Amino acid sequence: MPLLEVSGLTKAFGGLMAVSGLTFSVQQGELLSIIGPNGAGKTTLFNLLTGIYRPTSGIIRFDGNDITGCKPYQSVRRGIGRTFQRTTVFGWEKVLDNVIIGQSLHVRTGVWGAIVRTGAARREERRIREKARELLAFVGLSDMEQRLSGNLTEEAQKRLSIAMVLAADPKVLLLDEPTGGVNLEEIGGLIELVKKVQRSGVTICLIEHKMRMVMSISDRIIVLNYGVNIAEGTPAEVGANEEVIKAYLGARRVA
Amino acid sequence: MTRRFSPERIGWLLAVVVAILLPLFVGEYLTSILLLIAIWSIVAISLNLIYGYTGQLSLGHSAFLGIGAYALGLIALKLHLGFWPSFFAATAISGLFGFLIGIPALKLRGPYFVLVTLGFAAIVGVIILAWVDFTGGANGLAGMPRPNPIPLPWGGQVRFDSLLNMYYFVLFFLVLIAILCDRLVHSLIGRTFIAISHDENLAESLGINTMAKKLLSFTVSAMFAGVAGALYASYNVVISPDVAHFARGMDVLACLIVGGAGTAAGPIIGTFVLTAIPEGLQIVPYLKTLINGIILLLFIIFLPAGITGGFKALALRWGDSRKSSGGRDAAP
To answer: Kind of pairing, strands B238-239 and B141-142?
Structure first.
């Protein structure tokens, strides 16, 4: 059974079909890339999967359950983690605190525990701090835990945002352009991190524009154009697909 | 994780010692001013929780203040329940109103939430004024109880009919609520409040039930404001609809901004400054509003983080630039 299953997913903004009749599935453990020209509906798709938008029609099944219409926080609790295109961290908080906040959904301490500072509350705080340190080590930011995250480089913020989502223990991670806005020399390190996350057992869906990167790391690729799934397959299959070449380069260039 | 004797703790301890000793050296009049500062500081702390830490600007806290004051008065006068039951009931009723108003209001964001809270304050103000049979209308209520005397283990009792003892009673609640608020915002729950204030969408995308957390913060905040209202009613013995006038909500906000929203000391410092300056200058009441307005404007333009917030931001930046001097771009 696939981990994530989308069937007939449609989102219309007024008369504009941002995503239209999309059907695909994501297998446990794979790295699936979603590519397509600007405006193809990639980010809209992520917003549908994470409950930011309600689909106009269609069904999203995750881990065997129908999650269509879940609220964003509920989809995270079910195991769908997500990073944003515009890197988002809590800039006025320290790096370590960002990852602590990322674990909020696991917190059991209530108001009473918080104001009395019960033993259980202290233990939980210690445990969450430890886990935050482990996650920072995992993404390679250990030496920056006390820095203000807003002062980090774009690349380091991308790493941090991944650590923050991983803190929620997602089963699948939706990465919206994890290398966007990052220096060319730093891209390799981020790709390495994405692969490392996949090796740790997290399924990955990736939106990317850098084709060489997509071709090298993806297990499978889905190509969207005008909200429609125009091709699907291994990197080699997709690379040879005429429709794809047409969508990317324009009809004139097709030999 | 603060150290036992961090500079902050020593500062707080000193402030409490000064607050305890000060009324022994100043006259009755200044003590009564200090007492009011303590009460408005509690309201400012309560607003700080929902606005400073959770990022939801409420202009309706005058309503919770009024509900707390009138609840204490009505329960004590009509049900003859005595001070403590009335006091706890007033706190709970304010919290309940916060919870019930919060459910629809907190679904809205930004200016829409602000407007709903302002509307709520206006409605509560009108109800208190117009429902004469119940609230006494413009005449208000008289005969609010002072706290019951507390018996001492070595005989005798602490009575609260003197101004000084009432001042200590209010001060106790100010310190208690400041501590409760501080512990709450520095807990794992408090971090979710702060996260929401920075970026609600990001908080939700990390699995935080932002609606539930905002509602929690708003309810606790309304309870604290209700405590202040009940204390005010008990101290003043007489209350009038003025206590719930919506302008009070603005005054409290001004105090919070001047002191520094989202800091522990900000609400108290701001309330002190905005009360002490006009009081020290001995100016007529309507000029007081003018002066406070000018002070507020100057702060919004030149120091939007407020007195405490300005210091904190400086310290943060300074600390961070020191740490970053070795390898700003050294991501491994």
So the answer is: antiparallel
